[in-house]
Structure formats: structure tokens, C-alpha cells
Amino acid sequence: MKSPRNSAGPVVIIRPRLQLGATAAIGPGKIELLRAIGELQSISAAAKAMALTYKRAWLLVATLNQGLGRPVVETAKGGKGGGGASLTELGIQLVRRYDALEARINKAAGKELMALENLIK
Hints:
Layout: E1 18-20, E2 24-26, H1 28-40, H2 43-49, H3 54-68, E3 73-76, E4 84-87, H4 89-108, H5 110-120
Antiparallel strand pairs: 1-2, 3-4
């Protein structure tokens, strides 16, 4: 899973939290959850990988689905072949656009971030 907090990169980074319209907010936690669901094809497995309860992960997904008025995750019921989950095109684009925004913000703030990093060394 790609996570700037777990990478060998800079110690100081900016992780934006965005308000999307009147009813939806997204930040690093929800993005990491969406990324994990996309990679693991399961809300349950994503929750486990992130040390979240299934209920908490499902609530975060449901909040996004409702707040955006369209689903970011599609689920398939369990059974003999097992269930699963996948990101919708909206979910995929949210992760891509958030990652691009985060990278652009951190690049633009590079000098200041380096100065802050040097302060804590």
C-alpha cells in the first residue's frame, strides 16, 4: 500500500483534508482506505490491514457514497465464490486526484518542509 507516512521519504509532509461540496469530506485516512480496498478487493481485508473495525471502514465508505451522491466502492455479496469490493471510477479518480494534489502541494512547499524537517532532527 502506498502511504507517505510509511515511506522512506521526507519526515515532514502535508496531508490535505478536503471538503467536497456540502456533505462530503476526504483526507488521508479515507484515501488510504480506498487505496487498500482497491488493492485488496475487500472492505474487510482493507479494514484489517489498517487496524480498523469492519464497521468503521464500512461507515467511512458509506459516508463517502452518500456524501458524493454516487458510490466510490461497489460490493459483491458473499457466498460460494466469496464476496468482494472494488473501487468505482469515481473512487479510482478520487485516489488519483488526491495523490496528485498532495504531491503538488508538497513540491510547492518543499523549502518550508525541509526547514521544518531540519528543526526536528
